[in-house]
Design a protein that fits this description.
The chain has one helix and 16 strands. The strands form three sheets. Strands 1, 4, 5, 7, 12, 13, 14 and 16 form an eight-stranded antiparallel sheet that branches. The protein has a four-stranded antiparallel sheet with strand order 2-3-6-15, with no helix packed on it. The radius of gyration is 15 Å and the shape is globular.
Length: 202
């Protein structure tokens, strides 16, 4: 599959292992997600190979990465089993500090997909049992949010307010107490801000 700006691609997890307690980054050898609370039953057949199921109780994946700061693009496919999930149930988070103004998470709240820092901005409605594509772009203090290839929100943040990367978590919020129920697939991270045309091509 075509991936734009591959020279700026720093992580790509496609979750194709189908078994085991970790999932490997195809770009960086030392950035494998460790699966917590999960076993062989969490590996599911999805539209494009395999992906991981999260039970909404205690399942999550986590990897420590080298700290970095700058422009970025985060792309992931998500599938919510139900729309009414626990508040802050997250599909992607970048640190362990609840309410931090230096990081963010993709989450579900009030049946909406949201980007949450210490404010929340909507992507759109959570439609249960439907694959949805979420992309967040940070470009020199401006965030752009895309849902299924459509630009749905923009906002202004100071540098360092959402893009202070320390680790990545899937299936749980930054605080580690609100778990996502559903599936996550094809997580891709760039150290650059993709333009509109590149996001649409994903």
């Amino acid at each position: 599959d075509y991936i734009p700006q591959s020279d700026h691609l720093i992580h790509h997890w496609n979750f194709e292992e189908g078994s085991g307690n970790q999932t490997n980054d195809s770009i960086t050898n030392d950035s494998s997600f460790i699966l917590n609370g999960m076993d062989s039953t969490n590996w599911k057949g999805c539209i494009d190979g395999t992906c991981l199921w999260y039970d909404g109780v205690d399942d999550y994946a986590k990897v420590d990465v080298d700290d970095w700061l700058g422009n970025f693009t985060i792309s992931q496919w998500v599938w919510a089993n139900i729309s009414n999930q626990s508040t802050y149930a997250s599909t992607f988070a970048i640190d362990d500090n609840a309410g931090s103004n230096q990081s963010f998470q993709h989450m579900v709240s009030n049946s909406k997909w949201k980007l949450h820092n210490n404010q929340s901005l909507e992507f759109g409605d959570v439609v249960p049992k439907k694959w949805t594509h979420l992309v967040t772009v940070f470009d020199a203090g401006i965030t752009r949010q895309y849902m299924d290839g459509v630009l749905v929100n923009t906002n202004t943040y100071p540098n360092g307010s959402v893009n202070n990367f320390d680790l990545y978590k899937l299936g749980v919020n930054r605080a580690g107490n609100s778990y996502f129920e559903g599936m996550i697939d094809n997580l891709i991270i760039w150290d650059t801000a993709l333009d509109n045309g590149s996001v649409t091509a994903l």
